[in-house]
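Problem: given the chain below (187 residues), write out its structure.
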Amino acid sequence: SGIGAEIAAVLAARGLGVTVVARREAKLVDLAGELASRYGVRAEFIVADLTDEISRADIAKELDGRALSVNVLVNNAGLTTMGPVSRSDPAREIALVRTDVEAVVHLCSLFVPGMVERRSGAILNVASTAAFQPLPGQASYGASKAFVLSYGHALRGELRAAGVTATVLCPGPVETGFAEAAGLSDA
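Solution.
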């Protein structure tokens, strides 16, 4: 949804086949159908929970089973928590780190080797303007996005000679449903 759906549409508009991944199958079915219909590309989906290591590993297996290779990897999934660490829910904080940090590293580790072997590919890791300063009340989110930014810069340096690009996108606040899911409002 949100930024991820827009990025998928941009890639499809450029004639690239897309495989969208998220937890909610109904939304994925709709998005894949819309992309295939609008842009005439192969558009598929995989239902996966990016907080879960096995679910992430299954993405690679599913793509292999479909004879698909990843040429453009977009790591866009994310969530945030609200409030001071002293009142945080440990399970929610760990889910944030698994989604916003661990999934980025895991998916890059799964798919970058194939790109390097083919000497072609692109990685887009979505961070946030939150990566540039501490965020009291959203400490884990700000720190996770700082990680994604630093990781992306390092990855770009590693891949420069391999014919693979790595980019970090740092959007500011965007009306996507992300803030609403976190309990933020415009009021």
